[in-house]
Amino acid sequence: MRVLRVLLIAVLVCGSFFWVTSKADWSLRSVTAPFLRRAAGWSEPTKVKGAGLDADELNNIGIYKRGRLSTVYITSTTVERDIFLREYTSRDLGSGVVINPEGFILTNFHVISGGRQIQVTLEDQRQYNAKAVDVDRSDDLALIKIDPRKPLPFLPLGDSDKLQVGQKVLAIGNPFGLEGTLTTGVVSSIGRSIKSEQGARLEGMIQTDAAINGGNSGGPLLDSSGNVIGINTAILGQSNMGIGFALPINRAKALLEDYKSGRVTERPSLGITSAYIAGDLAAALSLPPSGGLLIEAVEPNSSADAAGLRGAQEAIIVGNSRIGIGGDFITAADGQKVEREDSLVRIMARKRVGDTLDLTIFRNGRSYHVSVKLLRAPF
Fold it and tell me: Pick the catalytic residue: 70, 76, 188, 217?
């Protein structure tokens, strides 16, 4: 019995000892663990509340929330025939922008051209059949109308004449059918000339690096205040390469003025190909260095041809560009100096067929005034 008591006491003493030492060991570990982690390069991650949005991001979000409500999805259905004369339907997809609460919408002409049925889908997924009420093929522009059940949210029209290269722009549309997509960028250039899908020459276009792809056509290009300053129209190549083009909104205003007054939209054409020249290059060519448009070619039977304007007599290479020289140099139009690439295009946007354009040209070392009667643009 005595031996058993001794063994029991020994077990109790040993157990107490291991319990105390193990507890002390865990306490020591809990105290030393942070130091060991720091020694191994560990530090607690910084945790913050909120999204951490800066002023520019908040501006983008605010414009998108307003702009998306007024950007619509357009489906144009056409009926075509295959080589066996069997009918089949095809659909063109695009975008548009609501410009007043009554349901008037601006888009590109190529989005709705040839369509037997035009369907508009609003941001809340309501769908309406639309009809084209006016078009301007030379600007690839169309005004369509739906009859909404209630007034629609719409976007204000800005002033594209005041655009500056480098200013921020935002594009909203439905690229590849992905509704309500926002892209951002800057005005990359102004006064660009490109060809439309119908082959017409579009002049004075806004170039932007905001991503524009198939389905964006007809959607709004917005400034940092949320005003529409352009209608997204075309891209360079088959997919986005950072080079997209939008029709300046002031050109669309001319169409709206015609519709409001009941006039048929007839866009005149001057009928020239030109290059903007200024500064040292102009001086080297014996032209006024203040700048102007050097006429490189005059289209036969055009307004410019009828007025006797002259194109280039020869060509030179400047850097990587070929420039036709010897033609008339336009320094002013309707009394306004030609100070940038799109100066003449902006003035022409306010003209109608039959109007007169007063040009100041520099020819053979002298300035002349030429009055040009404007003729209809060829399609």
Answer: 217
Q: Do 212 and 220 contact (CB within 8 A), yes or no?
A: no
Active site residue 217: yes
Residue-by-residue pLDDT tens, the chain, 379 positions:
554 554 555 545 455 544 444 544 544 455 555 555 555 666 777 776 766 788 999 999 999 999 999 999 999 876 566 665 566 566 778 999 999 999 999 999 989 887 678 999 999 999 999 999 998 888 899 999 999 999 999 999 999 998 999 999 999 998 887 888 999 999 999 988 887 666 667 888 999 999 888 788 899 999 999 999 999 998 876 655 668 999 999 999 988 988 888 877 777 889 898 989 999 999 989 999 999 999 999 999 999 999 999 999 888 887 777 888 899 999 999 999 998 888 898 898 888 888 999 999 999 999 999 999 998 766 5
Catalytic residue among 140, 209, 223, 342: 140
Is 140 catalytic? The answer is yes
**Residue 204 main-chain phi, psi, to 5 deg:** 70, 30
Q: Which two three-digit tokens encode residue 249?
A: 């909104």
Residue 110 annotated among the catalytic residues of the structure = yes
Helix segments in 192-336, DSSP class H: 249-261, 279-284, 303-306
Question: Which domains are assigned to the chain?
Answer: 70-145 (2.40.10.10), 160-261 (2.40.10.10), 268-376 (2.30.42.10)
* Residue 42 DSSP label: -
pTM of the model: 0.72
What gap in Å lies between CA 131 and CA 203, rounded to an integer? Answer: 27
Instruction: Give the Cα-Cα-Cα angle 144, 129, 149 (nearest 5 degrees).
Output: 95
Alpha-carbon gap, residue 179 to 68, rounded angstroms: 9
Show the DSSP H helices in the chain as ranges. 2-39, 55-69, 109-112, 249-261, 279-284, 303-306, 343-348
